[in-house]
Specification:
With 277 residues, the protein is an all-alpha fold. The protein has twelve helices and no strands. Its main location: membrane.
């Protein structure tokens, strides 16, 4: 006796087909707006000479962190420039910045609501578990029918993939605020909004920043993988090196990704410590 196979894949394909046909106008509008943002930021960064942008980034590192990060950032960016990977690095940075901004704008309100609502918290935690254990490549599949091949699909997949840490850490930070402080705010007659803005969010900010840091790192990793669906940047350099069997070029692009990841990681950690102090 054979057990009938559940046609889960067919149901998913049918749902994607229905969504892409029924909401094609919405996806086209989102695609145009996203592509405009990508082109605008990319053109603005490309307009600056490499040496000028390098000096700006070094100055930010010096101001936000310390001289050691500024010197290390200058050396790393100079190496990327020397390897001829400056433009792909800018394209990757553009995708990471836009995807992170979109993910944070969605994740922070969801995390705050989940922290304040026990019912939403219990509902969203299994969803986040599912999202974080799903293989990264799977997120590329629904992006293509919605937005086609290219950077917009990369942004869509990156936002979905990188959002869970920001939601989790925001919820965790707010729920870990000591009850004594909440009770003190209640005793002074603070409203729910005042408690959130003046007590819970300031105290949870280091944890929220840690979530944003993780979101940036996941966004960078996903943007590199998204080269498989036509995303520009350092990921496309790695993918091209694989296709042409050029390991040297692949390692150069990989080193550039590592430098960019370390720079973004140290900057966000420095921002978190600055806010905490």
């Amino acid at each position: 006796m054979e057990i009938p196979r559940i046609p889960l894949g067919g149901w998913i394909e049918g749902a994607l087909t229905w969504l892409t046909s029924e909401y094609s106008m919405v996806t086209r509008a989102i695609s145009r707006a996203t592509q405009t943002g990508i082109n605008g930021l990319n053109d603005a960064l490309m307009w600056l000479p490499p040496w000028a942008l390098l000096l700006i980034i070094v100055a930010i590192c010096w101001k936000v962190a310390n001289a050691r990060l500024a010197i290390g950032g200058a050396a790393g960016l100079a190496l990327i420039w020397n390897l001829g990977l400056w433009n792909p690095m800018i394209e990757t940075l553009t995708l990471v910045v836009i995807a992170t901004l979109v993910a944070v704008v969605i994740a922070i309100p969801v995390g705050i609501t989940a922290a304040l609502s026990e019912r939403l918290y219990r509902t969203i935690m299994p969803v986040l578990d599912f999202m974080q254990t799903m293989p990264a490549f799977v997120y590329l599949i629904p992006a293509i029918p919605f937005f086609g091949i290219g950077s917009v699909s990369a942004i869509f997949a990156t936002v979905i993939f990188s959002m869970p840490p920001a939601i989790r850490f925001t919820t965790l930070g707010i729920r870990q605020v000591p009850k004594e402080l909440i009770e003190a705010a209640d005793a002074y007659g603070a409203t729910r909004g005042q408690k959130l803005v003046k007590v819970q969010l300031p105290l949870s900010l280091p944890t929220v920043m840690a979530g944003i840091n993780q979101t940036i790192m996941l966004a960078l990793s996903m943007v590199v993988i998204a080269a498989m669906i036509g995303a520009d940047g350092l990921g496309s350099e790695v993918w091209r090196a694989i296709q042409r069997l050029r390991p040297g070029d692949g390692f150069e692009a990989g080193i550039a990704v590592v430098i960019l990841a370390m720079l973004l990681d140290r900057l966000t950690q420095a921002l978190s410590k600055e806010r905490k102090s």
